[in-house]
Specification:
This protein is an all-alpha fold. The protein has 8 helices and no strands. 79% of the residues lie in helices and 0% in strands. The longest helix has 56 residues.
């Protein structure tokens, strides 16, 4: 018969349920299918899974296999379709991860905005402190200077600076509580 491929008798034997013919088909196509799948998916595990699922599907549907002129073309088409499905699922997972990342970014932006608002409020509350205490508090809290650095800068003792910072924190804390706002961000600023 013209147009019949060399795989046709093998394909017919598989359709009839011959496990040796199926093993021969598996041995013949496993490696090239795996290599092709790996080039597309770039994952050994995914490539193995797709090829294995294809062969499992063939064996389970062996009695329903179509009569073909080219089983090789049919097999490659079936593999290609499975690879496209796998890529679509991966894209969905990547999209989902992108969405998670986007939502995290939005959350961080919101948190950053809340911190800025809290900082503005604390700066406003600090302005109500006596001038020297306000200066010490701002140097410590917002400029990041240590107690020792502030003591050297102002010419006061470290204990005096420590007392001023503690008193400032207590006063600002009490004033902040009276605003009725949550203390979550205040803790960040009042170290």
């Amino acid at each position: 018969m013209q147009g019949t491929s060399p795989e046709q008798p093998l394909w017919d034997s598989i359709s009839a349920g011959d496990p040796q013919s199926f093993q021969l088909l598996f041995d013949r196509y496993w490696e090239p299918f795996f290599q092709y799948a790996y080039k597309i998916l770039r994952s050994k595990e995914d490539a193995e899974e797709v090829v294995q699922e294809l062969f499992i599907h063939l064996w389970h549907k062996r009695q329903e296999l179509p009569v073909l002129q080219s089983p090789t073309a049919y097999l490659f088409t079936a593999l290609r379709n499975r690879l496209l499905n796998c890529l679509a699922q991966k894209k969905h997972r990547i999209t989902s991860l992108d969405l998670v990342g986007e939502r995290e970014s939005q959350l961080y932006a919101h948190e950053h905005s809340e911190r800025k608002n809290t900082e503005k409020l604390i700066r406003a509350l600090a302005r109500s402190l006596p001038e020297k205490m306000q200066q010490v508090y701002i140097l410590h809290q917002f400029k990041g200077l240590s107690i020792a650095e502030i003591a050297r800068t102002t010419g006061n003792s470290e204990q005096t600076i420590r007392n001023q910072v503690n008193t400032a924190v207590k006063r600002i804390s009490e004033a902040y509580k009276s605003t009725g706002l949550p203390l979550l961000f205040l803790i960040f600023f009042l170290r």
